[in-house]
Amino acid sequence: MKDFAIKTVDLYRFYKKGKRIIEALKGVNIEVEKGELFGLLGPNGAGKTTLIKILTTILLPSKGKAFVLGNDVEKNTLKIRERINMVSGGEWSGYGILTVRENLWMFSQFYGIPSRVAKRRIEEYLEIFGLKEDGNTKVSKLSTGMRQKMNIIRGIISDPEVLFLDEPTLGLDVQIARTVRSFIKSWMRERPGRTILLTTHYLHEAEELCDRIAIINNGMIVALDTPKGLKKRMKNKIFYSVEVRTDSYDRLKEDIPFIYNVSINPLPDGKFELKFQIDNEEKISDLFLILKNRNILVSSFRKREPTLEDVFFEIVGEKDEEVHS
Amino acid sequence: MKKYIVRNLRAIWGRAYPRVIAANREYSWLVADVVLPLLSVLSYGLLYKFLGAGIDFLGFAILGGAMSAFWVNVLWSMASQLYWERMGGNLSLYIIAPISLMSILFGMSLGGMLSTALRASATIFIGSIVFEIPFKTGNPVQLFLIFFLTLSSLYGLGMLLSSLYLIWGREAWHLSEFLQEPVYLATGMYFPIKFLGPVGFFSSLIPLTLGLDGLRQLLFKKGEIFGFLSVNMEILILVVLTIVYLFLAHFYLKKMERLARKEGKLTIRWE
Fold first, then answer.
1. Cα separations in angstroms, A32 against A47, A118, A169, B62, B105
2. In angstroms, rounded to a whole number, what is the distance separating the alpha carbons of residues B65 and B46?
3. CB A129 within 8 A of CB A177
4. Are residues A121 and A171 part of one domain?
5. Cys-Cys crosslink for A172: which of A177, A228, A316, B178, Cβ 3.0 to 4.6 Å?
6. Whole-structure pTM value
7. Contact A110/B88, CB-based, under 8 Å?
8. Cα gap A184→A287, rounded to integer Å
9. Is residue A317 part of a domain?
10. Which of A71, A73, A106, A156 to mutate to test the interface with B (most CBs of B within 10 A)?
11. Residues A157 and A298 both lie in one domain
12. Chain B residues with CB inside 8 Å of A94's CB?
């Protein structure tokens, strides 16, 4: 058997919620190679976090098997825990009365790292993340962004072979999210053989970082390929992008029933970008007529290449408000 | 195996650190943990003085006031701690760390013991000076054993409650409130437990009862007269309580972890 970093075989997970049984995972099969940055995309409640919790030994599978670095998550928990770590978006781990340095040192002790080594690594990572000046600040005084940088350092301080990142840039501002993404890339580059499993709501993040992406919906893997491969699936479909200026785009989607997979993104200067698909190109003139009748000014119109967002909406079927391009 | 033991020892110190070092950084603890308990001790002291009960009774009350700090620490910083760790998101990180969860609880206990010992010592020191309490020099081996075993069994009970609170959930919170004041009566925090007669045997399940009684016998002249059981018997019972509570704590912690992994109840927020 090939030595995968992560492998699941027909993995199921059920929860009991009152009298109801919730099927969070329904026969998930994935194989993640060592050294791969593997993305898991899906709408809210798709099963992403449940899968991460099983792989990090926090939850047991209800049925099926899961292996991390060749170890069964049910039987060899200690062997797995020694070689992994996890960071979640918006996590509030640690203790507010400790400083950033102390907090990181404390978590390093749970991995048996000698203090001298831990302190060296802490200084190194604080420098990289621009937190050196705030190293002696109490954790309770940190901003969300600084706190998440500290969480990421916590996750890598044990130098894990497999790192699970569960929406690591959730709620961060653009600049900090960019720092985090750039760090993830360099961490992988400098440590060949290390593996990351990343879940994210941000499609551009998945596209930028991941070698391969699995799209999970309703507990099932519905697509798995490289970002390029996923986009290739849409090569026969035509996508359009219209830049418009309007005060309100209320009911715009409803007023133009022949366009689908619609997303509306705000742009600077009160403009909006309307992305959509049309099956029949003859309908484009109707589209312009509707926009004109609504006093919406069109500043540009173009045919465009499919994006990961298009793939996601096509596969998942509906726009998830939490998924952002 | 050696690596695993060393890792767990580091984890114990790591988890003890916030309580030993960080908690003492702000001096507000002097008011909350020393001055305020001294006020309760003072009220008992004045009552005993007014009744002419003798200086040793004042000493009993001071010792009780100091030891009550450990009980408060066990109830609010041990028993309910894992519940708070869960709510704060640390519990998942503890579970995925390659250590035994017992090390986390040992770390909390060690930290709680050391920082509370500082507070308890301050209470005894200030109380003894204010009331001019005379101490006798009892058998130092017995003194060490009874103090050490009282804290071991008391924090063993705290570790057990910690696991149980987590399994019982939010409602267990009320148990702490329920246990705080009645235990002051049941354990003879401010008077010799002998006065409660056979009730003392039931109270002995809380290690403070025998611990306090033993310490009073060893530290005060009249201690032996008001002693509940012989000091050696109390040491023996405390050994048994330590073993039983630590065993049960380990058992329920394992059970809690199994439940957490099997049912997802402890790590899935909406559960």
1. 17, 29, 22, 64, 35
2. 14
3. no
4. yes
5. A177
6. 0.85
7. no
8. 43
9. no
10. A106
11. no
12. 90
Distance CA A92, CA B86 (A): 11
Q: Do A143 and A250 lie in a common domain?
A: no
Residue A273 belongs to what domain range? 239-305
Residue B169 domain-assigned? yes
CA atoms within 13 A on the CB side of A15: 22
Q: What residues of chain A have any CB closer than 8 angstroms to a CB in chain B?
A: 15-17, 53, 56-60, 78, 81-82, 84-86, 88, 91-95, 97-98, 102, 105-113
pLDDT tens across A256-287, in order?
888 887 888 888 777 888 888 887 778 888 88
B11 chain-A contacts, CB cut-off 8 A: 109-110, 112
Is residue B268 in some structural domain? Answer: no
**Given an 8 Å threshold on Cβ–Cβ distance, is A17 in contact with B271?**
yes
d(CA B206, CA B150): 9
Residues A244 and A107 in one domain: no
Q: State the Cα angle at A35 between B99 and A81, rounded to 5°.
A: 10
* Pair (A297, A272) in one structural domain: yes
Distance (Å) from the C-alpha of residue B148 to the closest C-alpha of chain A?
A: 26
The CA-based dihedral angle spanning residues B159, B161, B162, B163, taken in that order and rounded to the nearest 10 degrees: 100
Sheet containing A297-304: give its strands across: A260-266, A271-277, A239-245, A297-304
Residues of A in contact with B10 (CB under 8 A): 109-110, 112-113
* Number of structural domains found in chain A: 2
User: For residue B189, is it within any domain?
Assistant: yes
CB B112 within 8 A of CB B78: yes
List the structure tokens of A16. 């009991």
Domain range for B59 is 2-263
- B136's tokens: 């006798």
In a domain, A167, yes or no: yes
**Which residues from chain B sit within 8 angstroms of residue A116, using beta carbons?**
none
What are the structure tokens assigned to B129, written together? 């000076």
Domain boundary among A232, A263, A292: A232
- From the CA of A81, how many Å to the nearest CA of chain B? 5
Nearest to B17 among A17, A81, A102 (CB): A102
ipTM score of complex: 0.86
- Profile chain B (271 residues) by mean pLDDT over runs of 10 residues: 93 92 75 78 83 85 89 85 83 92 93 89 87 85 95 93 79 75 83 85 90 93 87 96 95 87 65 36
In a shared domain, residues A213 and A154: yes
Q: Does residue B256 form part of some domain?
A: yes
User: Same structural domain for residues A280 and A170?
Assistant: no
Residues A40 and A187 in one domain: yes
